[in-house]
């Protein structure tokens, strides 16, 4: 029995209709930007394995550091105990964030980082004897798949089975120069009831790589602060260089109260989530009253191995070589986007840093369930490229270690596939 057959017997894959799905591709090895299947075929991982693998697969330096840590301390309860990797990671990360971020809370993934942030904001008001329970979020948002994260994500077929179980959220359009005043008016009418505003800065990934301008977001953030609305900046996707700068925060003039991180945090090595906060948030939980404690935790909170992987990934990220690679990807994407803009089957070409996206023109319209996405996925896979179109939205989010030649091969293949005849 081969790996595909064994997998099919026992595994339930994410975002997959298991009845109609084709057998999963068995990957047996990774090296740099490449993945290899059980028959030896090589694939370029053009989506960083769901946007997490910053420095490529099986990075030897990360492997070395995690192995060293594994022989020293693999796990310890983080309630009442601490350890060097967690302290060092918090110190290093906070130095890179807006200067109002002063405390770090560890969890396991992006969804839980968001859950923690939401609980912080709701209890921030509660601990001060205030009742502010409404949440503000963008339409088409995606913040994760746990119940709180689903609640602040755009309502869709993904969330429909749980609709009555999700808490009410006020959804607004992403800001533009044309709608800002209207958004401010909407918010002002209910500002006293709003605990926080959660948003994906600059790029809404799962929504189809939708992008908005930092100037407009900064103005909206400033207005929310004036209305005493806490700001949760979800940098799970945009963090750690994806936007061309270290964080989307580096494009903004305003500072969030809370920030959420995961995905590229450990360079794709292992799961970890982080929620950072200002001292104002943290201090609202300091009390002789034990019931004002933030009652949240995970068995693997601040796992020493994950902290070590994150520290090493961050060291690589800050290196001159990686920063030059990020700039190379940005510039090559920028040049290729000019070609895409001239293509008759392409519209809405957009780019932020290492993220390049475009829509394939189709009568079905822009939709995650547009069947053309499956066709594109198979065509690219056949040509040795792993891409995961969001329906008719195609995008590239490559690891930073990708070579210029591999990018050129991807670009050439994109044009070949776009020029194919479709039934």
Automatic annotation (TrEMBL):
Q: What class of enzyme is it?
A: transferase
The protein's superkingdom reads Bacteria
EC no. given is: 2.6.1.62
Q: Which cofactor does it need?
A: pyridoxal 5'-phosphate
Q: Which reaction does it catalyse?
A: (8S)-8-amino-7-oxononanoate + S-adenosyl-L-methionine = S-adenosyl-4-methylsulfanyl-2-oxobutanoate + (7R,8S)-7,8-diammoniononanoate
Q: By its UniProt entry, which HAMAP family does this protein fall under? A: BioA
Pfam families documented for this protein = Aminotran_3 (PF00202)
Site Participates in the substrate recognition with KAPA and in a stacking interaction with the adenine ring of SAM — annotated at 15
Positions bound to pyridoxal 5'-phosphate? 110-111, 234, 298-299
**Which controlled-vocabulary keywords does the entry list?**
Aminotransferase, Biotin biosynthesis, Cytoplasm, Pyridoxal phosphate, S-adenosyl-L-methionine, Transferase
Complexes and interactors: Homodimer.
Q: In the record, which positions carry N6-(pyridoxal phosphate)lysine?
A: 263
Homology family: Belongs to the class-III pyridoxal-phosphate-dependent aminotransferase family. BioA subfamily.
Pathway the protein contributes to: Cofactor biosynthesis; biotin biosynthesis; 7,8-diaminononanoate from 8-amino-7-oxononanoate (SAM route): step 1/1
Q: What is its main location?
A: cytoplasm
Where in the cell is the protein located? Cytoplasm
Residues reported in the UniProt entry to bind substrate = 50, 142, 263, 297, 388
Q: Which InterPro entries match?
A: Aminotrans_3, Aminotrans_3_PPA_site, BioA, PyrdxlP-dep_Trfase, PyrdxlP-dep_Trfase_major, PyrdxlP-dep_Trfase_small
- What name goes with this protein? Adenosylmethionine-8-amino-7-oxononanoate aminotransferase
